[in-house]
Amino acid sequence: MPVITIDNKKIEVTAGTTVLKAALENGIYIPHYCWHPLLSISGNCRMCVVEIEGRPKLEVSCNLVAADGMVIKTDTPAVKKMRKSVLEFLLINHPIDCPICDQAGECLLQDYHFKCSGQASRFKEEKVHKSKVVDAGRHIKLDNERCILCTRCVRFCQEVVKEPELTVAIRGDRSFITTAPGKTLDNPYSLNTVDICPVGALTSKDFRFKKRVWFLKSTPSVCPHCSNGCPIWIDHADEIMYRWRPRQEIEKVNGIASSQLTGNTILCDEGRLSYGEWQSDTKISKPLMLEEGEHKEISRAEAVLKLNKILSKDMKEIIAVLSAQISCEEADAFVKFLREKAGTDKIYRSGRAPLNPTSDDIIRKADKNPNISYLEKMGLRELPANIEGDVLFVTDSLSKDDILKTANLKWKSIVQITHDKRLIVPGAEIILPRATFAESEGTFVNFNGVKRKFSPAFKPAGEARTIAGWIPFLEEGITGVMSFLRKQESSDRLI
Amino acid sequence: MEQILTQNFKVLNACRLNAYLGREGYKSLHKLFSQQSSQIIEEVKKSGLRGRGGAGFPTGMKWGFIPKDPGSPVYLCVNADEGEPGTFKDRALLEKDPHRLIEGIIIAAYAIGAREAFVYIRGEFYRPYKILEAAVSEAYANNFLGKNILGRGFDLDIYIHRGAGAYICGEETSLISSIEGKRGYPKIKPPFPAVKGLFGRPTIVNNVETLAALPFIISNGAAAYAAIGTEKSKGSKLISVSGHVARPGVYEIPLGLPLITFINEYAGGIRNGKRLKAVIPGGSSVPVLTSLEAKDVLLDYESLASKGTMLGSGGMIVMDESVDMVKALKVLVDFYHHESCGQCTPCREGSGWLKKIMDRIESGHGRDGDLDLLINVSDNMMGKTICVFADAMAMPVKSFVTKFRKEFEDKIN
Prior knowledge:
The complex is a heterodimer.
Chain A: E1 3-6, E2 9-12, H1 19-25, E3 49-52, E4 59-60, E5 71-73, H2 77-92, H3 108-117, E6 134-135, E7 140-142, H4 152-160, E8 166-169, E9 176-179, H5 192-196, E10 202-204, E11 217-222, E12 231-237, E13 240-246, H6 269-272, E14 288-291, E15 294-297, H7 300-311, E16 318-323, H8 328-340, E17 347-350, H9 372-377, E18 381-382, E19 391-395, H10 400-407, E20 413-418, E21 430-433, E22 442-445, E23 451-454, H11 467-479, H12 481-491
Parallel strand pairs in A: 1-5, 16-17, 16-19, 17-18, 19-20, 20-21
Antiparallel strand pairs in A: 1-2, 3-4, 3-5, 6-7, 7-10, 8-9, 11-12, 12-13, 14-15, 14-21, 22-23
Helix pairs in contact in A: 2-3, 7-11, 8-11, 11-12
Chain B: H1 17-22, H2 28-33, H3 37-47, H4 59-64, E1 75-80, H5 89-96, H6 98-112, E2 116-121, H7 126-141, E3 157-162, H8 172-179, E4 203-207, H9 208-212, H10 214-220, H11 222-226, E5 236-243, E6 249-254, E7 257-258, H12 259-266, E8 276-280, E9 289-290, H13 291-294, E10 298-299, H14 301-306, E11 315-320, H15 325-339, H16 345-362, H17 370-381, H18 389-403, H19 405-412
Parallel strand pairs in B: 1-2, 1-4, 2-3, 5-11
Antiparallel strand pairs in B: 5-6, 7-10, 8-9, 8-11
Helix pairs in contact in B: 3-6, 5-6, 5-7, 15-16, 15-18, 16-17, 17-18
């Protein structure tokens, strides 16, 4: 394998790799705009230039194949001078409207200006004016004045999504990004163009003007929208999620926003925007009880008393349905409880199943549950049609089919642990508030068997707990109210 | 001198096949098909022929870059996108002697192993396009093109592709992008076209004038061609001269002709008895020469390089003492600003910046420091982009401002 030297550091590289990749993978950061690991090499921004021993001219490192014995310098006066001049060129027609730009704080123009230039503008002319606030598509606004024409977005649509919706039009400093006449940027991955845009040209309509990014905290998590289970960052502040971003699984951050580095993950728009579903007005934060046809909030003690009535006296057959929305840890704990404490083995699986699930061969999977593989591996079967029992336990939700299967049966009670009123199964008598994946810790196993951990972004709302967190209370329901009251104090902190 | 490229220019209807055949047209093909392609490449190398589009790269050497076993079709692209301001020599060849070009295309295609040739002709060249199209039809009808040419087992098809009005598409990788149906953006190198060009296949791009010189070389031998010109700049060259000369037009010269001799004897001297002020010798992209520099320079690659300029495309623009150099540069800067494709940062932004400074200076609103800024911005563009367009803009700016600085200063103060 070729060995090259970058800034006096000897690096063994795979044959055929470029100097830029080799540098980034070895912790040497070369500033760049147009190069992106998912995309073909364009070489237009001219930012990633390096000096090569024995060659007269600076060359762009993105297109420079590492050859054995090559000696590269990334920080010579000539390189620094060129970067400075490229930045000057990029900024002469840029509106520098950082105070009102959503990209501020994670903008490569800002970052590199402070890192590589810092010089005041020598440009005293009228700037080129271009179209702004362009409605580029369902989810995207485009500001052509902020654009540096790196063509990452154009190449992303062409090469990754294979929907060449974007192009550059007109020439020279009048060039701008646009769609074909009458067409819009509406591919199912359009919001990735916002991530890969190194500046504030493409912004998400959903996120625009919602929050300055420096107020956001990022928590590593997993998108629960389908069985692909993409790694995500939950960007949140004050217990509110503002956006999800794709997360690289191996982080190599040098103080620059991670998605701009060697990340190669993307998210589909529907998954990315599904964060809203998890924080709607119908979110449940207290136990609910069905009374005169309505679900009324009750205390945890009242809930346990009610559970005790349902479960402890004249214990009948329990049927349990685990949703593929719950974590491995929740599923393990709940199955253990069901078998050992509730004395049932009639445990089935369900999950969300929209009518026309979207799927493709990029990342979207038709199964819209993040943990279906794990429940299948546990040996849980789908709910049979002719199921019979007295008490039905539901976690998260039932699919529409499963609701139909259970609807006409004479349940003595339905107990459900879920986070949203919209998911309540008709006739559910007791509903315990469930901590969402954003509020807890756990693991999902995706369609491919890849395990991914998620962490709590913030505390559960109100009295919500994970399913595992509710098990002591369910046990109390079975064994008797008195012991529950004794234990209440110590289990209060159990999520 | 012996006329090679212009020998049919004054022949009536030389653009028709019959007239061309009557002038020993397509004679080289018999010799061509009796030799191996490697022999042809060797012959062209020996002739010393260099690319006449502007860069002056040795033609035989360029052909030699085609991989030995390409494993896929090889293409020949003919650069007829003559767009360099001051250059109109390919147009003359296309209109007056199109069969010479077709014959040259057959030779080049045979040498590099191409079975398809794409002529990329400037969109504004409607008349040359119609003439070339008719000539190609005639060539097909008489089996100079198509299957089994002259029964010698060589197939060749020519496709004519019209440009849509972009100067940058005369740059070879941009020309390839354009034929591929893409935006006319130059492609980053490597890979070079000879390895991965049109549709990802090995491709040679040759200029019209370069190809038109081939029939003579093959018919008469490399030595006959190399006998013309100087030791290092061999052969003849078309010079299209415009500006303040008595007889502007297209002339064929032996390389190494003194520039002043050319102006006085070929182009009829400076118009109206005025004095020479400046010459752009090889198309608007090359650095301008003052009359003093022009005095003892020869029209060949080396002599012009020694004066810091280039033979380029041979598009000579002659300026007499009445020319306002600030206005002249503004015209050029406007052109390059209009034509920058906008792909690379330094060129896209620099071209606009230079134009805005020039606009101010020319309209009497120049400021102290503007001239140094023009040179500094030019320096930040030169050699810093995918193709040489940025250099093509920076070179005239730097040379005009440096060599005629006083005129610029007078305009500012």
